[in-house]
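Allow me, if you will, to draw on your knowledge of protein folds for a short while. I have a record of one protein: its chain in single-letter code and its fold written as discrete structure tokens. Could you please explain, in whatever detail you think fit, how the structure tokens follow from the sequence? The record follows directly beneath this note:
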Amino acid sequence: MELTEQLNFDHQDRRDIYEYVEAHGSVRADQARRALNLDPEAFGHHLTILRRDGYLKREGKRLSVAYRDEDVEEHDADDVVYTIRAAEQRDLSGLVGVIRQVAEEGTYIEAETVADLLDHEEVILRHTETRSRMVFVACVDDEVVGWVHLDLPETEKLAHTAVLTVGILPGYRGHGIGTALLDRGFRWACEHGFEKLYNSVPATNEDAISFLEAHGWETEAVRENHYLIDDEYVDEVMLATFLDCDARL
């Protein structure tokens, strides 16, 4: 199933099963059935249809949402070998840890918000009728060292836009990993019909602003004294970029 695909259920029980699995990321089939108080035969019937229609997948005894498989990209730069791939549920603790470490530098409030949300929901990829998100991770020896997160509104008037956050552990900066993650997020957004990306950072995060500007982002607005960081008021810089998809696909 495409992350941006419109959800369409013709039976309330099937909607309930999907929403339960989606909210948990990965769950045992028997746990879902008991939680929803469904008859085993009826549950099996609905599950068969949800799997047939590409909404859910089953691996052993566990169910998860059947998102479309994304390509794994391998990179070798400056003696650092890394991969970029779609984040998986098993990446949750490592991903949250990396985002929090970057956010602890005190100048990436949006990243801190993403970490709090992931930690609270305990689910990485989301696709509901009101909100969806896509996350790619950069990994060295299968350990998460960076991420790009796309928050995807389902509201019709904002459906062409997405909010993007990207970050790298300090020890892995300077190897092109951030650029590769940003490019992967751009290409995914283009492939799924998005036209514009946003990101907001404190004015004190000069490295992030310079990084984004070097990749074609422009400042759209500045909200004065929007953040209070270390007892000092700091402006919020709101950056955006229109996607030149023909050049990227």
In short: The mean pLDDT is 91.
